[in-house]
Amino acid sequence: MTDTKVEFNNPIIQMDSLPILEKTNFQSLEKDYLWVRILFISIVLLIVGSVALFIGIISDLEWWQPMILVGIIFSLIYFTEWKGFSIKGYALRQNDVSFKSGLIFLSMTSVPFNRVQHTEVNQTPLARLFDLGEVKVYTAGGATSDLTISGLKIGEAHQLKDHITKLSSQYA
Amino acid sequence: MLDLSKPQRQSPVGVVVLFFKHLRKAVNFVFYFFILKYSTDSSSLVLWAGIAVIAIITLVYSILIYRKFLFYVQGDEFIIDKGLFNREKIAVPFERIQSVHIDQNVVQRALKVVGLKIDTAGSGTKELEIAALPDAYARSIQEFLLERKKQVAAAEEDIVEQEVGETFKTSSKPLIQLNLLDVVKVGLTENHLKTSFALFALVNGYYWQNQDFFSTFFLDYIKEGQAVWLKKWLIILPSMVLALLLISIVSSVVLSILKYYGLQFRVSPKEVQKVSGLLKKTEYQIPIHKIQYLKYSSNPLRRLFGLKTIVVKQASSKASADKQSLMIPGCKEFQLQAIIHELFPELEKSSFTTFKANNYLKVQMVLLFAILPATLIGLLGFLDARAFSISILWLLIALPLSIQCASNMHLEIDSEGLRLRKGWIFPKTEVVKYYKLQSVSIRQNVFQKRRKVAHFDFYTAAGSLRMWQLDEEVATELYNYILYKIESSDQTWM
Questions:
Q1: Which of B161, B262, B332, B387 satisfies CB 3.0 to 4.6 Å to B381 for a cystine?
Q2: What is the arithmetic mean of pLDDT over B41-45?
Q3: pLDDT at position B218, please?
Q4: B225 or A118: which carries more pLDDT confidence?
Q5: How far apart are CA B206 and CA B306, in angstroms?
Q6: Residue predicted with more confidence, B225 or A154
Q7: Where are the beta strands (DSSP E) in B111-257?
Q8: pLDDT band with cut points at 50, 70 and 90 for residue A24
Q9: Nearest residue of chain B to residue A168 (CA atoms)
Q10: Are B261 and B282 in contact (CB under 8 A)?
């Protein structure tokens, strides 16, 4: 209790000596994961596009008009996915794990290992094609505070999960 | 001695308690017999026969439900076996029990029994309630369940919980106690605009649902009234608003007396406890270690009386988050200080470093709440010229409000915890200790990035808190600092 008194009155000065999560600490995701995302968006595009075509045919509009709108929206989605991919990344430190993402809406979330509830490895069918998987880290802070590290090689994902589980179980 | 190994029934008077409980649902059907009677000119025999049939069906249903309702203990689980048409067997492992409440409504009080409710961490929707038990029996079950829960938890985690002080004695002096005058003040200072709106929506909804009935029943009045209505709406509308406000004030006072009369709030080394209610006495407790953060708020009327509302937030699953917090209305400043002294001793004497939100928050709020709505209303001005003046009026009111509200956004940091102060008309403060945080996030859109500001999210097991538009530099430092504080703390958050 007594040694915490030192930083008690001046938390800001203390900050210089803190371990700092720098942007360069972040590890980028597997390049293949970009293809998983693009494939996924293309499948959605296929479905939305055919609905738009259907609407275009049965409504008073020209048959191609709804498709133009869909085309504009999806080119934006493709663009942000493409440009935003390099921003996505995760950082693993001794005591916590972090993930950041977002081209237009940037976000960075960190979960300390002593607050991890449980972890799991997921693999979507598309990711299986590329041998990729994701690690989900759950906390007690609700869905928005959970962390998903996607775009890992499936073997790495299992390793990462085991690593986090091992570290977090020390605190249980 | 308490023996729960064999299936138990509740008190036989439970039939009556269940009857009244189900009757409340059945009353809706009675209403339709009224409609039938008055809309088809049938004799009142139909009405009475209908009511009698409903009452008998409800009674028989209650008896069957009562007979099918069993509770017992099997291994490490408390089991409730119930249901007539779809049988349900709910098993609650002892360690998942969050808390056990005892309450008493008017019927239960008249029959000298109490209801027992079990809260669990996960199931927000499942009803774990025993309707009628003798008071002493209910208390022994409550004690038994909490004792078993502790045993299981201790055995699992291999940690023997320290016995800290004594448990509650009702004789111990409460930290907060509300008398009748306090409770009336609380009712008077309720947010009446909100209540009026809710009331209006309720009446409106009920009217539309049964529109056919009302329109045949009141047709003559409506026809007659229509002419007057159109002519004198300038008088009728304000008087209706006044009436609505009056009803909401009166009902707020009545509700407040019913809910908060005799409120007592106690803090012991192990838990906080609230007892309140006039007809239905409810008892609510939260173990100290489950408390995640504290929130206190006020409104203009309450500020006149120097009153605040305090909410103690408990760790819970999202679905039942509202039910899981303990609210104390009508708290005075010194009582708030006493609570902070008890629950957050570390934060009491500390010196907070204050950070204001970046001025960008003012820009954002002015755009969102003043300029954007005013422009939209102003656009309507091309259809009806009066909209222009409304638009200007809106701007005049919303502009200073937005600026004030934005400039009141504060983050105060200390070595053990933080305080978030926000709002102007409805000021609100949240207090949380670092080791109660689960994770942190920084969020920023492209505009914010250009301005070098970011939102800061603090996640607790009782919901998330947000500091809006914090300077990026401060946010990054704080992010590292809080992570360090969480990671270096050996205190468990629950």
A1: B387
A2: 72
A3: 62
A4: A118
A5: 37
A6: A154
A7: 114-120, 129-133, 176-177
A8: low
A9: B487
A10: no
Q: How does strand B428-433 pair with strand B417-422?
A: antiparallel
Q: Which of A37-46, B57-66, B233-242 has the highest mean predicted lDDT (pLDDT)?
A: A37-46
Label each residue of chain A as H, E or C.
CCCHHHHHCCHHHHHHHCCCCCHHHCEECCHHHHHHHHHHHHHHHHHHHHHHHHHHHHCCCCCCHHHHHHHHHHHHHHHHHHHHCCCCEEEECCCEEEEEECCCEEEEEEEEHHHEEEEEEECCHHHHHCCEEEEEEEECCCHHHCEEEEEEEHHHHHHHHHHHHHHHHCCC
Q: Which two tokens stand for residue B314?
A: 């408990």
Tokens of B250: 């009166």
pTM: 0.72
Are the beta carbons of B394 and B404 closer than 8 angstroms?
A: no
Beta bridge partners of B8: B71
Distance of CA B472 to the CA centre of its chain: 35
Predicted confidence (pLDDT) at residue B162 exceeds the cutoff of 60:
no
Which residues have C-beta within 8 Å of that of residue B287, sequence separation ≥ 6?
B99, B270, B271
Phi and psi based region of residue B423 (left: phi greater than 0; alpha: psi -120 to 50; beta: remaining): left
Q: Tell whether the torsion through CA atoms of B356, B362, B363 and B367 is positive or negative.
A: positive
Q: How far apart are CA B282 and CA B265, in angstroms?
A: 12
Those of residues 101-120 in A touching chain B at CB distance below 8 A are 103-115
- Cβ-Cβ pairs closer than 8 A, A with B, add up to 111
Q: DSSP letters of B203-227?
A: HHHHHHHTHHHHHHHSHHHHHHHHH
> Does the interface ipTM go beyond 0.90?
no
Chain B interface includes A23 (CB < 8 A)? no
Statement: residue B411 has pLDDT above 70: yes
Mean pLDDT, range A43-56, rounded to an integer: 94
At B270 the three-state DSSP class reads: coil
Q: How confident is the model at residue B407 (pLDDT cuts 50, 70, 90)?
A: very high
User: Is the separation of the CB atoms in B354 and B375 below 8 Å?
Assistant: no
B439 interface with A at CB cutoff 8 Å: yes
Q: For residue B449, give every residue at least 6 positions away whose Cβ sits within 8 Å of its Cβ, in sequence order, or none.
A: A106
CB atoms within 10 A of CB B201: 10
Whether B454 contacts B443, CB under 8 Å: yes
Listed in sequence order, the residues at least 6 apart from B159 whose beta carbon sits closer than 8 Å to its beta carbon are none
The per-residue b/e assignment along A113-150, b for 16 or more CB within 10 angstroms, e otherwise, is: bbbbeebebeeeebbeebebbbbbbbbbbbeebbbebb
Residue B341 phi/psi, 5° resolution?
A: -60, -40
Contacts of B476 in chain A (CB under 8 A): 20
More confident of the two residues A145 and B354: B354
Identify the CA nearest to B427 among candidates B442, B415, B410, B412: B410
Q: Do A141 and B441 touch (CB under 8 A)?
A: no
Instruction: Specify the higher pLDDT residue, B28 or B270.
Output: B270
What residue in A sits closest to B483 (Cα-Cα)?
A: A112
* pLDDT > 70 in chain A, percent: 87
- The whole-angstrom distance between residue B246's C-alpha and the CA centroid of its chain comes to 24
Q: Which residue of A145, A167, A170 to mutate against B (max B Cβ within 10 Å)?
A: A145
Provide the token pair at B276: 């309140």
